[in-house]
Structures are given as C-alpha cells and as structure tokens.
Prior knowledge:
Strand content: 15-25%
CATH architecture of the largest domain: 2-Layer Sandwich
Structural class: alpha/beta
Radius of gyration: 20 Å
CATH superfamily of the largest domain: ATPase, nucleotide binding domain
Number of domains: 2
Shape: globular
Order of helices and strands: EEEHHEHEHEEEHHHHEHEH
Mean pLDDT: 95
Oligomer: single chain
Number of helices: 10
Amino acid sequence: xxxxxxxxxxxxxxxxxxxxxxxxxxxxxxxxxxxxxxxxxxxxxxxxxxxxxxxxxxxxxxxxxxxxxxxxxxxxxxxxxxxxxxxxxxxxxxxxxxxxxxxxxxxxxxxxxxxxxxxxxxxxxxxxxxxxxxxxxxxxxxxxxxxxxxxxxxxxxxxxxxxxxxxxxxxxxxxxxxxxxxxxxxxxxxxxxxxxxxxxxxxxxxxxxxxxxxxxxxxxxxxxxxxxxxxxxxxxxxxxxxxxxxxxxxxxxxxxxxxxxxxxxxxxxxxxxxxxxxxxxxxxxxxxxxxxxxxxxxxxxxxxxxxxxxxxxxxxxxxxxxxxxxxxxxxxxxxxxxxxxxxxx
Length: 345
C-alpha cells in the first residue's frame, strides 16, 4: 500500500511517500525557521500562509522523487491535530481535496502518534511493547506503547515541556531562535559543575516532570551573575545537565516499573546529543535497548505521518471527505486501528 503523508501542524511543511512493504520511498521538508526568526517564535498566521505556498510544490517534488504518480496512491494521511488550527487546516484541506479527486481513502493522524511510531522508520526498528519518552517543544510524556493505538500515559510534565524550557532558557542567555539547538551547542563549550541547578521532581516518586522551576533558577542566576560569554556557556551546560539528568532518571524508572526492556525516544529534544549519551550509558548498565528515529525524523516531518497513516489505513479511513482539525487532541482518545471514532462526523 502506497500512502502519501502530509504534516502541517506548526512550522514545518512535511511530505512523504511510504510503502507498507518497501518502507519510506521519498520525503521532503521545508522549515520555517528563517521566517519566524525575526519574531523570536512561531507566528501562527505566517505559518499557515507559508504552508499554503509550500505544500503543493513539495507534494509534486516528493512524488517525483519516489517515482510515482497520484494515481498509484492507495491512501492519503494528514496531521489532524494537535497543533495550530490554521496550519492544520492547510494540510487537511489539501489531503481531502486530493483524496476526493482520486476517490482515495483519507485519514487524519494524531501528531504525537506519528512521533511515537517514528522509531519504526529506523533499522533496526523496535518491537512492541516498549516505553516511549516523547520529548519536544510542546510535549514531555512517558508512554507505555503496546501496539498501534494502545498507549498508556505513565508520566508527563506538569508545566513547561522540556523543549519549551530549552527555548526559554536560550532566550534568557541571549541566544538566537530556535533556542534549543543553540543552547545545546553552547553547552558543549561550558564547564561542567561550574554552576549547580535544581533537578525538579527528581525524587518525587512518580514519573511526572516539571521544568518551569529550572528555567526560573536560570533567570535568577543570570540576574545575579550578569554573565560573560564564558559564564553563559557554563550556565547552558548546567541547565542541560539538570534537564538531561531528570529526563534520563524518569525514563529508566518508567522502563523498570513497566517491566519493558525497550525504550524509544522521540520528538525534537531526542536529537540532543547529551541526552543520547546519558541514556546510552544508563541503558547499558540496566540491559535496556534504546531506539531513536533517524535524526532527520526527530523533528516534525511527513514520514512519521505517512507511516502512522499506513498502519491505520489498512483498517479504517473515510471516503466522505468531510474533515475537521483538532488543535487540542488528547492522545488518550486514540484507539487501536478499527476502533477509532470518526471525529469529522
């Protein structure tokens, strides 16, 4: 089955073609970083307009790279939510228009399910069940994944997501947008142990996270120190060390409590090299396998939507071409393929 996947939930326009036996055939991604840089963050209206401009040309490029035509597709998947309403509507309307024109089944995909399943694009791919650490700019969750649509929340952030804390801390240090990667790069030059920052909820006894207090501790330190360039690097290192320690400790505790021996790390922060190095060391000690999507699929992309859509289209999908988007869509609402509710009805 050949599936076209469209991702337009925020500030990346992603398109991919996935084959259920041959794997990923082609993908294209346009990032809006340069567009939003002047504003220090994503401007929803600008994001929507850019998706409108980029999506159809990217579809044409991706189909050409895969060596197929629209007529060879067996279905189309798009991100239905969560995300920015206007941005989501661009992908939803294009997907349903193309599906209507070709009489194809179409399906809306949960953005976070795409991230959860994105490590299946790697080789080797993890087998079910596994524990997933979903860590991005908007989400920080630990999930038990027993199969497609079979998810149980083990823990989540009670305030800021980890990626959000990275971005806000970067802004406090005067780093350019996007802040997370810039902070990680600066932290590589910092001296370990020069500053000590709190590890929020490290010993809370549960699997929840909190990063707001860590960000506030950085703010207090910056105001106190008026840091030089070298000291800013040391602060960045202290922040990253604290965040990584909490993420790793909670993730490994979740693996132990669930009885699993596989951990999947997905989402943009999953590309952080310090996080990967710490998890690698801890996992080796505990006999746990750790899986990541390829680096290019850690951030938002069409490949994860095409994959998740393909796994569901074999059991569900619609041809009435009514559609909606869900800017707020709890992952707990999902069911295994064939048991889902048609949210456009």
